[in-house]
Structure formats: structure tokens, C-alpha cells
Amino acid sequence: MSIRTLIAAALFIGTTAAAAASAQTGTFTIDWKVNGVEGVSVVPGATVLVTGTANWTPAGFGLGGTQFRVNLANANMTDTLVYTEAMGLGRSPNLRLTPQSLMDSSNITSRSITAAANTPVDAAQAPQFINPGYSTANPIQVFSFMFTAGAAGRTINIGSEMLGATVLSNSFGIPLPVQYQRVSDGATIEVVPTPGSVALLGLGGMLTLRRKRR
Length: 214
Known about the structure:
214 residues; 7-stranded mixed β-sheet; 3 helices; 12 strands; 20% helix; elongated
């Protein structure tokens, strides 16, 4: 076999391997929890911690970054959200490239947390060769905020609209050649009446019934 044939064969194998790698698919999930569990029941005025933790397969070297909006269906302006920049982008300043201004907006049926001008929150790490604090953790927390419940009689569904996810293949920041399917694993907060208000409702019903009988 000639040298030319061997080179051509090597190039073909390399190209085929690269194409196979680029065609590889995986799953990237942000898993939401409330006080560390899938869902809680609280009374008006109660405060809980909401966290979003990213995990992905295939694993790669570590998280490069992910962009998302946090959606809270059935939340309204009676609820209070606390989401400072440090809380919003995780456990360490090394998890982000630059500070962001976070904000929340609402409509009749939901609230959402984003960066300014409705741009996505960007949870990103600089590559390890320029960031000594780079974390290769998988899973890794990418977002957290405090939620204080307002009006009762609602179940608030927490999830995220993901606009991007990048997993690195090495410490030099080269992306893993995988197309990740982005998934949001949601959590719930059920806001229930206080026991006292339930008792008052029951007493009011009994008084109404007595009046009708008279």
C-alpha cells in the first residue's frame, strides 16, 4: 500500500470519527428544588430556598456555561423574590464571567427572573487555565433565590426556559462536541391557608348554617 493511500485512509478515519463525535447527543438538565425537595406546602409569609442544579450526560470535563430564564407559573406580586447577583449565579464568584443585573417581571399568571432587558441569566465559568477556582463538579448549582409566599390558594410551578448549554472537553475551554437536549426538571410550592384562617372559615360556615336553620 502506498504512502498516499495510507494518508488518505488516515484522513478518512479522522474525518469519520470527528463526524461521529459531532453527531453525538446528550441530556443537560437543570433540576429545581425547594428546600432540597421536589415540592413543599407553605402558609402565606413563609420563606423557602429555591435552587437550580445542572447535571449532564455525557459528562465531559465540566460546565462551561448555561443560559436560562427562571419561570414561576402562578406566582404573582403578592410573593417576594430575593435574587441578588451573587445568589443568582451560584455558590462562588468563579462560576461567572462578569456580574449581571438581575430582575423579575410578571403578568397575570406568572413571574420570571432574567438578566436585564429579558436576556437570559448566564451561569458561566472561565476555563480552568485562567480560572484557578474552576469547578468540574457534575451536578453543580447554577442558581438560587429566596421565595416568600403571598396569597394562599395557589400551586406555584418552578422551571426554566434554557437557551444554551456548553460542556467543556478539557481545561483549555474547548467545548465537548455534543448536542445537548436541554431539560427543566421542575419543583412546586403550594401556598395553603393558615390553620387559623381555616378555622375562621369553618366557624363562619357554622354560623351561616345556624342562621339559615332559624
